[in-house]
Structure of Putative HTH-type transcriptional regulator YtfH:
Amino acid sequence: MSRQVLRLIADQWTPLVIYALEDGTMRFGQLLKRIGGISRKMLAQSLRAMERNGLVQRVVYPVVPPIVEYSLTPLGQTLVEPMKVLGNWAYGHMHEVALARTAYDQRDHTPLQDEVAALVEQR
């Protein structure tokens, strides 16, 4: 069950869509501009999944061409604060994470690789 819940929000784009829609209702093109680096296809897939999971409301106005607007549902709005907390943590600890990565990358991983190779050979 917990994995299913995490899958609702733990992809690359859902938090960014939540941040974008925190300011209110937006059209697809506005979201596309607001969320840098997302493709049209990924935005459409993310919005569809979020709508299916009750996080986003999609409203289509019957005009030509159709106008489609997206907004957070009350359930989606409950994610705004937790996402802010995670974002603050990430920004607050970016330097520490970068240092940890550098230290890890500079270590000699050969002994571990040799140990794994020996175990594989024993099988």
Observations:
- The chain has a mean pLDDT of 90.
- Residues 79-123 form one domain.
- Helices lie at 2-9, 14-21, 28-34, 40-52, 74-77, 80-106, 110-122.
- Strands lie at 26-27, 56-61, 67-72.
